[in-house]
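Exam revision sheet. Question 4 asks you to relate a sequence to its structure. Input first:
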Amino acid sequence: MLDLGVDSKVYGRGVPTTSPSRYPSRYTVSQLAAAVGSSPDTLRYYERIGLLPEPPRTPGGYRSYDDDARERLVFIRGAQRLGLTLSDVRDLLAVRDTGACPCEPAEEHLARRLTEVDAEITRLAALRDQMRAMLDGIAAGACPSPDPETTWCACGKEVSEMAEDDCACGPDCQCTPGCGCGCR
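Answer key, structure tokens:
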């Protein structure tokens, strides 16, 4: 039996085949979104702001993306994972679209982002220290102020300034049970 399929040796050069290397996969917006772990709305948004070129449409009017669009979205998602803004990503894509390597501008964006991350880590470490000090104070029977300008309790008194069953707040006390101030 003679095999005359498109991948047979009978066809010469230039005859199209279904080989994946010659013809990229086609995706609907939902399929592409699922393939890159995003949402269809995000893809449409990227089209509107110019990060993703508008794809050709099927005769039915559906978007028809190819593997290049998938690779572009993987690049965008990777840059976002590193904390780059969409403006940064646009800059990198502009370089990448020329065929040049976007490593040099990426280095500048990543260095800036790393400085921002280091500052945020420092801020969070200080916040953690403040929270730990407050928890330690509450556990010791004090009601430390969350801020020098305020107190946790409406009465504004420290536990040491109040009697066990006496609330200096009076009848309009706003303290809550378990707040640690001793008035409830």
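Marking note for examiners. The longest helix spans residues 103-139.
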